[in-house]
Amino acid sequence: MALMQCSFYSEVLGLSTSMNVIVPQETHTQIGMEGHAASGKHPVLYLLHGLSDDHTIWLRRTSIERYAAAYGLAIVMPDVHRSFYTDMQQGGKYFTFVSEELPRLAESFFHFSNRREDRFVAGLSMGGYGALKLGMSLPERYAAAASLSGATDITSMYNRRDEEYELEVRRIFGSPEEVKGSSNDLFYLAEQLASHKGTASLPQLYQCCGTEDFLYEDNIRFRDHMKELDIPLTYEEEPGEHEWGYWDTKIQRVLEWLPLSR
Questions:
Q1: CATH T-level fold of 2-252
Q2: CA distances from residue 177 to 94, 133, 155, 174 in whole angstroms, order as listed
Q3: Which InterPro entries does the UniProt entry name for this protein (predicted)?
Q4: pTM: predicted TM-score of the whole model, two decimal places
Q5: The pLDDT of residue 50
Q6: CB-count burial class (<10 Å; 0-12, 13-18, 19+) for 200
Q7: Residue 228: per-residue pLDDT
Q8: Is the pLDDT of residue 37 over 90?
Q9: Distance of CA 95 to the CA centre of its chain
Q10: Which three-class secondary structure string do you get for the chain?
Q11: What pLDDT, on a 0 to 100 scale, did the predictor assign at position 31?
């Protein structure tokens, strides 16, 4: 695998930003790891960080480069600050950035496939929310979306901590009334997805959460909502908290689960 640390200018955000990119490389003599790469353009997983992290965190807290080597899968890890992958009420247009500009730039910079069946998204916590939001908002672009301990119910974030945190949530999303039934509401996006089940291909969806995680109840509500709507969802839970030991294990499971052409 090759690791690229890429700094570039975003027209959408109006600023310079960064992403870390892992690119498949065919290797046979590297001690402790054998890398695989397709002869054509590489399939790509957009791997999203959580609220307190940045584009470096998956490399620092997991062995994602080693895990991905066996699959011939490129990994793109962008930096979105504390935006919740959203076109913020007061701030940057981060959903437009990750949904429109980022894939276009990544596919122009690197030898990545632009086919839906080769494009996937996953993330943890805030990034789990972002992954489901991208997959359900744009089912025509993503073959699969995976949430690890995702923030699946934005309305529950109001009054969750302290006044400063609630002000931050309001700067991102506006009021709880503005979230409910909007493109920032995963429950609403699921209903929209269900209404198109007969007319469009649905992305494969994966959700996991530890039973001791503070977001566990939110995840259960979302899982049950998907079940009521009869939307196929791979759901897994086991003992675990909101921490990197759990996510390091589960990202390996996500890579196994992805519908990669082998």
A1: Rossmann fold (3.40.50)
A2: 21, 18, 8, 8
A3: AB_hydrolase_fold, Esterase-like, Mycobacterial_A85_antigen
A4: 0.95
A5: 98
A6: exposed
A7: 98
A8: no
A9: 12
A10: CEEEEEEEEECCCCEEEEEEEEECCCECCCCCCCECCCCCCECEEEEECCCCCCCCHHHHHCCHHHHHHCCCCEEEEECCCCCCCCECCCCCEHHHHHHHHHHHHHHHHCCECCCHHHEEEEEECHHHHHHHHHHHHCCCCCCEEEEECCCCCHHHHCCCCCHHHHHHHHHHHCCHHHHCCCCCCHHHHHHHHHHCCCCCCCCEEEEEEECCCCCHHHHHHHHHHHHHCCCCCEEEEECCCCCHHHHHHHHHHHHHHCCCCC
A11: 66
Quote the tokens at residue 248. 């390091």
> Please, what is the average pLDDT of the chain?
94
Sequence spans of domains, the chain: 2-252
State what percent of residues in the chain have pLDDT above 90: 87
Gap between the Cα atoms of 24 and 69, Å rounded: 7
